[in-house]
Write a structure and sequence with these properties.
160 residues; elongated; mainly alpha; single chain
């Protein structure tokens, strides 16, 4: 007999990774075309766009993994999902900030297109991930749909 507190559906990792990829790579293509028109050094700008665009996109994909891991446990604990989300978000921001420093200092690439690329890509991808995690948590199959502990039904009581 399956436990009442096990979700029937897991976190939609594949769909979210596909959405992040479509949006991320589309933004990268637009930035690749537009930013060189705005900055003097076309080659350096394109290199900065390529490196930072890939970093922002790949870090957004990797940041989904902690939530996927919690979902795989079939947990209904909302707090675990929130912690996993923030773990991924923290890793994403650290990776992106380290990449900015690396690109500017060691590759000697221009600061403005490097930072513009990061912000233009980072924020929409963050929004998509946040909305996706929130939608899952609030969904009928997500952890917030777990039965609430009551005195009449002690089987739903959370462990201390």
């Amino acid at each position: 007999m399956e436990s009442q507190d096990a979700p029937q559906h897991g976190f939609p990792t594949g769909r979210i990774l596909a959405l992040l990829s479509v949006v991320g790579l589309s933004l990268l293509a637009v930035l690749w075309l537009v930013l060189p028109m705005l900055f003097a050094d076309v080659d350096a700008t394109r290199e900065a766009v390529l490196i930072m665009g890939l970093v922002a996109w790949l870090s957004s994909l990797i940041s989904v993994l902690p939530v996927t891991g919690v979902s795989a446990t079939r947990s209904r604990n909302v707090l675990l999902f929130v912690k996993a989300y923030f773990l991924g978000a923290g890793a994403r921001v650290v990776a992106c900030l380290l990449a900015v420093v690396f690109v500017i200092k060691s590759r000697q690439l221009p600061e403005a297109p490097t930072v513009v690329t990061l912000m233009v890509m980072y924020l929409p991808l963050l929004f998509i991930e946040t909305a996706s995690v929130t939608r899952f948590i609030k969904s009928p199959h997500g952890p917030s749909a777990a039965p609430r502990p009551t005195a009449a039904n002690p089987a739903t009581e959370a462990p201390a």
